[in-house]
């Protein structure tokens, strides 16, 4: 959009007064943020309304991304950038004596997701809007986002994230679009005499779902998509007799809290209620909108909408869409089923068994009696149809209902036309191993969509120093087409460019060093090698491998404090699920190791360990640009894709990583010589599983370094971790080290040594960094979302 500095200043000052009855000189940061966000909302609102109108009129197919999590972070700068007014606003504010970066801090992170899965959903929202694709989000407006993490005495402490206290300036509450979602009670079917069974309900618990629309503003175009988030409320016409305290609490609870588990399924009733709540509300709204705007009959709906099931949490979409078509729209089962399969598509995000959702039949039956009938019928009909075709063994292994449980992934695969994994290796594993039996039955449904990241946020917004260097080296086209970064390759031998890349990195590191000093009171040297591991704390991600290597360095420095070596800063950020005691023990250990090392005068600047609390999107935007090395060290086969690996690459960090998830594609794109690969391959891991021949205790007993490091966790070398250290020690010796940490340790050390040696040659290092940046174009989620649009949803971009 067009905006002059003068116009902006006028709008801003006027809004400050009209909104807060205050003049600029007296306004605090909160008020300035409130006025600014309100002005920005005003700027995009007419574009949004026009695009909604266009979507209704043009009759083009739209897709809906159902996700129980989104993790957008802050929206202010993203909205400014995408509207094309970031520089104008920055300048206008500066004229008024206001620092944009400072008031941007007033916006709380929108953290209604745990980690990678939610962040991917938000990257997709940004990319869809920015590529002009009509993709809308559908989720839950949690009153409390992911807990805030404090580190107290080395331990993780969880505090509520009450992010809505000052309101949410971006959203629009649309009460007129509210729908009802019902739970429990009894249902029976009555023949209407025309071959149709009409369900009758009794004693149902009614909940009102109220949508809050948050605009997803496209980058320098006219597309504004919608992320619809549902809030649960008490229906206004509910008899007061039913409004007892328990009901009121239950209703409020539905959209109150985000479950803080990442890669872990938690079979609680409230979670199942949340899943049905946003699924039912979202589908109802889609159908209402269809009826209101389309002339076509409901049986043509698959020409106009696609519904995407992001992981299994929205898998009830399959059964709920069937219910709506059959019960509300009176469509026959066969037709309804064909429509449903055409409309639905599904992404699998993990093969970790603890994350695979299975709900007890009894629970589904009592909470969702009609859906239960439909699921049983889907399963029954499919079994009858397939038995003669594929045989009992395959049918049984792929049944939706078995052993008293409803398998949500099975429901999603069977009820949709597309199942995709999120990186090549992961998609192959699905076909060859984890979902092999489904692949045998439905080979044409399986495909890969390698994840990506919203590069505008992770580069243009997060890393201005680098963005400037890129502009001045290869021009500005990379800002709208990340593939353009490839042009950077021809500057690989250009000393001036390498110099400037180094300077930009240094500037980012100084900024992070400042933050570390402010937050943790640790002074780090920005010329040191910044080695970063930021992601959820999970055993499979193997933060422990990193920690063990740090202990090795510590021992070496203690033994020979004056030797010449590369100074290193190891930076961690990670939240552990509150009930995941093992992960919390690792956090405690990292913090105690940090305390031990950072306060040892023998160690000095040679090694620092920093745990930054409350890792979230905003913190990631400061940490990742400053990294020299990104740690992507999960056990091969466990990390479906990873996306922080892509953020690091784009910001010129070198990856040390296993051949897991999208790491493989990153190494291939950047060149294996521009990263550091180590560890077991996926096949080697599966061989160990097949032969059951891994014995971690042997390694502990035979490898003196491993022995010494593990002992440090239990012999007081690392103070204050007697219980936590013991738990870790036992998991790696007595309980046979589930994620092969000890097995991969030696090779990890080798890779770390190679990395350190490379860092000593700053020119070679910076050339490798350049090659990473130059080849990051493939990992833009603009590319990913276009693949979904073309191959799965069949939606077209607005021209
Ligand atoms: C990108 C991102 C993640 C995902 O990180 P992985 O290393 O891919 O697991 C998690 N949390 C936040 C805040 C992120 O920005």
From TrEMBL:
GO terms for cellular component: cytoplasm. It is an enzyme of class 2 (transferase). Its EC number is 2.4.1.1. Keywords: Allosteric enzyme, Carbohydrate metabolism, Glycosyltransferase, Pyridoxal phosphate, Transferase. GO terms for molecular function: glycogen phosphorylase activity; pyridoxal phosphate binding. Signal peptide: none annotated. It comes from the Bacteria. Transmembrane segments: none annotated. GO terms for biological process: glycogen catabolic process. Its cofactor is pyridoxal 5'-phosphate. It catalyses: [(1->4)-alpha-D-glucosyl](n) + phosphate = [(1->4)-alpha-D-glucosyl](n-1) + alpha-D-glucose 1-phosphate. The modification N6-(pyridoxal phosphate)lysine is found at residue 647. Allosteric enzyme that catalyzes the rate-limiting step in glycogen catabolism, the phosphorolytic cleavage of glycogen to produce glucose-1-phosphate, and plays a central role in maintaining cellular and organismal glucose homeostasis. Belongs to the glycogen phosphorylase family. This is Alpha-1,4 glucan phosphorylase. It comes from Lactococcus taiwanensis.
């Amino acid at each position: 959009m067009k905006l002059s500095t003068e116009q902006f200043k006028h709008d801003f000052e006027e809004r400050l007064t009209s909104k807060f009855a205050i003049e600029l000189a007296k306004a605090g940061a909160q008020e300035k943020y409130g006025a600014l966000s309100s002005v920005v909302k005003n700027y995009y609102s007419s574009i949004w309304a026009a695009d909604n109108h266009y979507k209704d009129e043009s009759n083009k197919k739209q897709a809906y991304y159902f996700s129980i999590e989104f993790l957008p972070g802050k929206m202010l700068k993203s909205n400014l950038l995408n509207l094309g007014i970031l520089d104008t606003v920055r300048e206008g504010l500066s004229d008024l004596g206001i620092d944009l970066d400072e008031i941007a801090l007033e916006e709380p992170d929108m953290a209604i997701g745990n980690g990678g899965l939610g962040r991917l959903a938000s990257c997709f929202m940004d990319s869809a809007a920015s590529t002009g694709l009509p993709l809308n989000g559908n989720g839950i407006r949690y009153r409390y986002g992911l807990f805030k993490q404090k580190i107290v005495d080395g331990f993780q402490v969880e505090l509520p994230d009450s992010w809505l206290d000052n309101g949410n300036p971006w959203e629009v509450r649309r009460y007129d679009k509210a729908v009802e979602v019902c739970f429990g009670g009894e249902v029976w079917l009555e023949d209407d005499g025309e071959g149709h069974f009409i369900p009758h309900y009794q004693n149902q618990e009614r909940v009102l779902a109220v949508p809050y629309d948050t605009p997803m503003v496209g980058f320098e175009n006219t597309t504004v998509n919608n992320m619809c988030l549902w809030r649960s409320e008490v229906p206004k016409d509910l008899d007061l007799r039913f409004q007892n305290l328990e009901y009121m609490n239950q209703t409020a609870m539905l959209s109150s809290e985000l479950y803080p588990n990442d890669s872990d399924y938690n079979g609680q009733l409230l979670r199942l209620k949340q899943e049905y709540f946003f699924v039912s509300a979202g589908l109802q709204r889609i159908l209402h909108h269809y009826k209101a705007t389309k002339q076509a009959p409901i049986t043509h709906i698959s020409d106009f909408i696609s519904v995407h099931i992001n992981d299994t949490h929205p898998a009830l979409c399959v059964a709920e869409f069937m219910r709506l078509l059959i019960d509300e729209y009176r469509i026959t089962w066969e037709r309804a089923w064909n429509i449903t399969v055409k409309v639905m598509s599904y992404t699998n995000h993990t093969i970790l068994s603890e994350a695979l959702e299975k709900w007890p039949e009894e629970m589904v039956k009592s909470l969702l009696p009609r859906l239960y009938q439909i699921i049983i019928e889907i399963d029954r009909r499919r079994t009858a149809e397939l038995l003669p075709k594929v045989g009992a063994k395959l049918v049984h292994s792929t049944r939706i209902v078995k052993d008293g449980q409803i398998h949500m992934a099975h429901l999603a695969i069977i009820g949709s036309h597309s199942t995709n994994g999120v990186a090549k290796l992961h998609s192959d594993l699905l076909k060859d191993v984890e979902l092999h039996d489904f692949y045998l039955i439905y080979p044409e449904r399986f495909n890969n969509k390698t994840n990506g990241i919203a590069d505008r946020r992770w580069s243009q917004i997060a890393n201005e120093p680098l963005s400037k260097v890129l502009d001045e080296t290869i021009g500005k086209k990379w800002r709208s087409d990340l593939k353009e970064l490839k042009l950077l390759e021809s500057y690989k031998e250009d000393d001036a460019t390498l110099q400037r890349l180094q300077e930009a990195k240094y500037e980012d590191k100084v900024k992070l060093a400042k933050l570390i000093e402010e937050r943790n009171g640790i002074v780090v040297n920005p010329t040191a090698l910044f080695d970063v591991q930021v992601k959820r704390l999970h055993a499979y991600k193997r933060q422990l491998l990193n920690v063990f290597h740090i202990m090795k360095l510590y021992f070496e420095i203690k033994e020979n404090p004056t030797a010449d070596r590369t100074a290193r800063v190891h930076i961690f950020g990670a939240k552990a699920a509150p009930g995941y005691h093992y992960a919390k023990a690792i956090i405690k250990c990292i913090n105690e190791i940090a305390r031990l090392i950072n306060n040892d005068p023998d160690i000095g600047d040679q090694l620092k360990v920093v745990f930054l609390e409350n890792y979230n999107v905003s913190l990631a935007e400061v940490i990742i640009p400053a990294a020299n090395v990104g740690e992507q060290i999960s056990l091969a086969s466990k990390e479906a894709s990873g996306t922080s690996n892509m953020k690091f690459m784009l910001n010129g960090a070198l990856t040390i990583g296993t051949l897991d998830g999208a790491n493989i594609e990153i190494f291939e794109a950047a060149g294996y010589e521009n990263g550091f690969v180590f560890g077991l391959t996926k096949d080697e891991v599966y061989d160990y599983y097949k032969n059951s021949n891994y014995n971690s205790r042997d390694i502990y007993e035979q490898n003196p370094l491993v022995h010494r490091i593990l002992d440090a966790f239990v012999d007081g070398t690392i103070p204050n971790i007697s219980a936590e250290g013991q738990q870790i020690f036992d998991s790696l010796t007595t309980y046979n080290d589930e994620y092969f940490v000890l097995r991969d340790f030696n090779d990890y050390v080798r890779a770390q040594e190679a990395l350190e040696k490379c860092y000593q040659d700053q020119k070679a290092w910076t050339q490798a960094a350049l090659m990473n940046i130059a080849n990051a174009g493939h990992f833009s989620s603009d590319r990913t979302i276009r693949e979904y649009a073309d191959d799965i949803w069949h939606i077209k971009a607005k021209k």
